[in-house]
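Components:
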Amino acid sequence: MTSNPTKKKNKKSFNIDAPLHVSGKTQYLDDMPELAGTLFAKACYAKVAHGYIKDIDTTAALALPGVVKIISHFDIPGENEIGGIIQDEPLLAEVEVHFIGMPILIVLAKDEITAHKAVDLIQVDIQEKEIITDPIVAFEKNELLSQPLHFQSGNTADAFEKCKYVYEGKAESGGQEHVYLEPQGAYAIPNGDGSLKIYSSTQGPTAVQRTVAKVLGVSMNQVEVDVNRIGGGFGGKEDQASAWASIVAVGSYLTKKPVKYILERGEDLQMTGKRHPYKNTYKIGLDAEYKIQAFEADFYQNGGAATDLSPAVLQRTLFHATNSYFVPNVNTHAYSCRTNLPPNTAFRGFGGPQGMFVMETAIHHAARALGVSPTVIQEKNLLFEGAEFCYGQIAKECEAQNTWKEAARKYDLARMQKEVDDYNLKNSYSKKGLAIMPICFGISFTNTQMNNARALVHVYQDGSVGISTGAVEMGQGVSSKMIQVAALCFGIDTEQVKLETTNTTRVANTSPTAASATADLNGKALQDACDQIQKRFYELARQTWSLSEDAAIQLTQNSIVAGDNKMSWNEIVSLAFQKRINLSAKGHYSTPIIHFDTKTSKGHPFAYHVYGTAITTCTVDCIRGNYEFDAVKIVHDFGSSMNRAVDLGQIEGGLAQGIGWMTMEELIYNEKGQLKSGNLANYKIPDIYSVPKEVEIHYLDTKGADLAILKSKAVGEPPLMYGIGAYFSIFNAILAFNPKAKLPYEAPMTVEKVLMGLYQ
Ligand code: MTE
Ligand code: HPA
Ligand code: MOS
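Structure:
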């Protein structure tokens, strides 16, 4: 820990959206006023998970007053293809359907209710085929979506020979529904010349633009995508917003009318992909001092019926398979398996959590067998400065041990553990559990090429500033951070900066808002643009005041200052305008240093890592199997947080979402591939009653990485993984009741599983 050299006035806590949110004025896609003549689209989707389309009858639907058109794949002007990484996903089914929820036809109607009724009147006759829902079955049938992946360091075979203790086992983690508050949707408006403007609820405006252009058979410059903000994405709109945008685009292109489609919650739950469920095997070897010497694991990812982002997610699983531990010998394999479920996709953590869960399981397994607390093994193996990850990157400014030590000290871990132990001695049918979850998460898109961004800045002649970047606001606070960056560069108040919508015409070729890297990438591009204008102002001041080349000039407190010379911000802007100086600039940034060789699986893929440690305690009702989280106490490595309010919200939200994934959110598909937990009554997400009774977050103010914007480290995804501690805290409470519990390592730890564990 060091003092904070970059702490400035603009490193403050504010959220530009808060006043709008709390007064209900925030505009989402469905709040936009509709243009006259707008048509409403709705998909008729497969009710069978795999089969041949034998016959389709739309007669009754077409006869319904208000139905304008029914679109099939035959009507698509360009390619019937929306696959992001691999071209294996048709927009509309052609001969076969591959999952329940796969769109077959699109109804266009004058209102939403009519569209809904018409979809119900369409008869689709499908000859059912055998389905696969289990990734291991898919693997055995060689149904793989992409090439297997393999990471290796050292030699595990030799290392296992020398290990005193070796344990093998299985671990499984379930999927997770995003439950963004705003469902998927898009609104297309034709410009009259064949080009279109599309408002989309997407994390990836450029992905939408590229996909729509392909589906329409037009070039990208004919498609403008605009995003004001989205009501949550959590990865679910990184790649999967393109389908709905393509549907309204095709509808609009064919009818020359505005076309809108906002999914109903039920449709969204059925049709869209989720976090990948994983089945895994592991083998861990420890020496006499409990140092982990070797780790092997095989990961079987349930990819669903099309590739989507699965290979990238799978790769991040391998990057995080040793979590925040140093393991000298690693050998991991990973398989993306094709099943008849909706294509699974990005979800906060992007495969990382699934990898970390297996490592934590292996440690827990070893600890049980050795009769020690898992924390003993965890602590002994934490990463250290200079340690090499199995993919070749060296841990720098490594805070793994510091966050652990600080958590143990600040929250008095020994006392916490004693309280749990004392409670368990005194209570027979109520038990407490404690678990520690250290995290280490790599920041950068694992696909190096994606780590770049652009920004556009206008200083208007009245001194106000308009900024555009490729960042999409989805509740994570990136808008506030962008405004702070510009205000800081110009030395002006944040109130003077207006953030424009994210628009492909103003800022092109954007990477999606993802990988927690949005503020870093777009913020640095924005700094580049602001710096250019700043330089022009400095030059003008130099001339005006006849200063030397090396005179110190500063933009600060709404002024430009050089020694005794001073002009207000408005004066320098006005002077620059009179002198015909360019008041606009576009900026660009691409992350330096990073590289990765996919052939050898070695390199330096991440700009930096984010670390943290969470201590979770829970109480289990050993008669009913219910549980409550008493407390989660976190020490998190923020670098030097540029906006503590926003960052705090990210930790709290990520933690709750992680706890949900690990404990209560259970996706159940029946043998026909039908999602049974397809509504929010039987798919339970954390609410105010199920979040921990106490959440304490301590900021470990660290030097902060240079590659983080204003040294403020990325914060979007890492805290989700603190939720893994919730799973093991319950497991430990169960063991306090039934030390011989035959509980398999399968998440989520639902109340039913707890009961089984208590009494088996
Ligand atoms: N926070 C809110 N409120 N809503 C979201 O949709 N998405 C998460 C995270 N935090 C999300 C969120 C995910 S998956 C990512 S990758 C990051 O935000 C993306 O934003 P960032 O790069 O600005 O952190
Ligand atoms: N994270 C999130 N999204 C991504 C990534 C990643 O590492 N790579 C490609 N899309
Ligand atoms: Mo986040 S899963 O990278 O959108």
